[in-house]
Structure formats: structure tokens, C-alpha cells
Amino acid sequence: xxxxxxxxxxxxxxxxxxxxxxxxxxxxxxxxxxxxxxxxxxxxxxxxxxxxxxxxxxxxxxxxxxxxxxxxxxxxxxxxxxxxxxxxxxxxxxxxxxxxxxxxxxxxxxxxxxxxxxxxxxxxxxxxxxxxxxxxxxxxxxxxxxxxxxxxxxxxxxxxxxxxxxxxxxxxxxxxxxxxxxxxxxxxxxxxxxxxxxxxxxxxxxxxxxxxxxxxxxxxxxxxxxxxxxxxxxxxxxxxxxxxxxxxxxxxxxxxxxxxxxxxxxxxx
Length: 269
Ligand SMILES: [Zn+2]
Hints:
Bound molecules: zinc ion
Structural class: alpha+beta
Number of helices: 6
Oligomer: single chain
Strand content: 15-25%
């Protein structure tokens, strides 16, 4: 599932490729991909893309007419720029047409969605409004007080988008390994120093993953349809039974808070 680094990679690609471009036409193949409200074509066609940004795992495509197209990639969403008139692949739900290229939204499992909202209403959209801050947008002190104020196991807490946004199953595992924290550790009992380390580890892991253009685990690709490379740098995620690169102990996988957690039982305490 695309997490912060994958979504940021797509956002950076789209910013470069579609900013300033005018939307000439829109074709919706699957109406229900517009989960909340089917948009009026006239609110999209004719507008120019003014910016592309990220909020948590959401992609925000700002239009010159005051609307914003929101895209959530769900589990298997792909948002890719292709030459004009490219074949519409199976599971492509929406095509936006520009001069010289098209933007395809493809999603096999359809956990993702698209939405069109007025930029003025953005803050009131429930699924955006309730999001916790991005690790990049807060200082260590704020991160520490957010985590300490909860009384939950750290792994499911990091996955909760309403507490801290952007981390999913891959990066929560990798960040906890980097910070040497056991995924079952109770957040309220963690010392300030460990939490400062956790914040620093989050930033370091996420930055490295963005540099590697994300992790292609299932079918994630960037805005040009190219796979990321960070899956080659995973140290615990998807490595159950393999030796820990720091200490040689076998990486464990356990279900914690209904999600699987990968960790080193020796390094992470
Ligand atoms: Zn280890």
C-alpha cells in the first residue's frame, strides 16, 4: 500500500509533469471511484493545474478554478502520466486529458478513490480534517507529546492516521527497527529520549525512502509508471525468518493490533 514516501514521489512527479497544464477532457470509466459525489465535468474541464501537494497519504491536485481533485491510492492505486491516446488498461477508472499527454487513475482493488472539493472547503472534509500531523511538519517536542498522550502499543499507534499521518505497515516497521523500539511498547510509558529518537528515525527512514522513490511491494509505481527501489533496503518488513543485519537474530512477524509487525526480537526492546 502506498505510504508517505510513495505518495510524495507521485506528488513530486505530477508537480513536474502536470503543473501549469490545462485539462482538455475527462473520461470516467468507473463512476463509483468518485466515492463521495460525482463531479460536474464543467468544474474540471477547462481548468489548469496550479499545484500538486500531499496531505498524509492523500494527493491534492489544485485547479485554477478553485477546485481540488483529491486522490487516495488505497492499496493498489496508480496515477500515471502517459502519452495522449495511450491504451486504457483494465482497472483504469478515470482519464484526464491534457495537450500531449493523459493522466490515468488505475486501481485493481479499488480501495482508493477520487473526490472533487472546493479549495475553501478542504479543511472541512472529514477524512482530511481528522488527520494527524505529518512527521515532517512537527518538531520533536510536539511528536513526543502526541505519542505520550496516548496509552497504546506503539505499532498500531503509528498506523493510526488520526494521530500521526503518512506511516503505514511498511514504514512503521522500518522506523521502529531504526529506533530499536519493540512494536508492543506502550506509548505513554516511553521516555522522552526514546521518543525523540523515534521522531528522528521516522524522518531518516522516510527521507531515504523518498530518495529511493518509494517501495514497490505490490504494484506501486511512480508518476511515470516506474517502480521504486526502497523495497531493497527494507531491514525488517517482509523479512520474517531472515537474519537481522545488525545482530543476526531471526526477524519475527507477529500480529499486533490486527496488523502484522516485523521486528528483531534482540535489537528492539
Ligand atoms: Zn537485531
